[in-house]
Structure formats: C-alpha cells, structure tokens
Amino acid sequence: MARRVVVWRHGQTSWNRASRFQGHSDIALDEVGLRQAETAAAALVDLEPAAIASSDLVRARATAAALARMTGHEVITDSSLREAFAAAWEGLTRDEIVAQDRERFQRWRTDAAVRPGGDGETAHEVGERMSAAVQRHVAALPDGATLVVVTHGGAARALIGQLLGWPVDAWKRMAVLGNCAWAELDVDSGPGWRLHSYNRAVA
Prior knowledge:
The chain has helices at about 15, 30-45, 60-70, 95-110, 125-140, 155-165, and strands at about 5-10, 50-55, 75, 145-150, 180-185, 195-200. The protein is α/β, with parallel strands linked by helices.
C-alpha cells in the first residue's frame, strides 16, 4: 500500500513580507505566519498523519508545532530539511542582490548549477539532501501511513522535482509553494513517486 507524503511550507515571516532571501538564516514566524500555521494544521489533521518531520529552523519548527499539538505527535527535527543555503545573498532583497551581484543572479535564475551568493547550494545539492532525508523518514512509516514534511519554499520545490525524476533545469517551472501551502505525493513499489496536488492552501 502506498505511503503518502505531505510537503508543507512554513508560515509567513517578516523576511517573506520584505521579499528577503532567508536560506539558513533563522527567522521566526510573524503573527500572520502563526495564524496561518494554526489554520493549515486544522486542515492537515484530517489527513491523519502518522509522523511529522521538520526542518530545524525556527520558522518551520513553529509551523510543525501547530500540527503536533493537534495530533499528539512529537516533531522529528532534521537539519537536512532546511532551505537552500544562499550564502552572501541571505538577508538581501532581489533588488539588493541585483545591485551587488547582477551577473551571478541572472545566471542563477536560468542555470541550476550556479551557486547563490557565490558559495551557496545548487538546486541539485538541495534536491539530493532533501530526497535522501524524506526517503529515510518514509522508510520508517508503516504501509498506508502519511508523513508531513515541514520545510521551505525552494527546498520543497527541489525535493519534489528530485523525487519525480524531473531534470533539474525544469524545477523552476513549478511556482514556489505559498506560505503554509502544501503538496501531496505518494510512493509505492510500482510506479514510484506520484504527485497528486500542489500548492494547496486553506481558502
């Protein structure tokens, strides 16, 4: 029987509002983000998750905590579920990055091998670490069970692209999940990974 994975992006932060690259920077949810987490968790609890795995960054852990309170599950924190490391670009807006590092930024937008901020993670590196972590957590589930993975926008996109076997240069054709939106996939021994829904959110 297929195991289900729900990939859930954290709620809003002040840096989201300002359109700043967050990466590994540990930014807390703002008041809107906390409310988003509670609202989305109330919907996700109906999926009867058997386990919750979260990035160790505070914005993801606070989002996961809302679902943990409703399900009674402990959150499994995993640094492998972090956002892509953006190095010197973290904390900057797009306009600030363009002003400081225009040529690299333009290449990064179209070339998945370019390292953000000079020595950040490539999309492929993020997809590989995310996929390895999620498959490790999935392997611990019983057949038919559901895992909720609480992570970040860019990391979620890389994870899904990697699991589905899409070419890395095609991953940016997926919009980034909205704050507290989620995607649903499942996996079994037949066709492997399948995407059922993407960018779902509470209306």
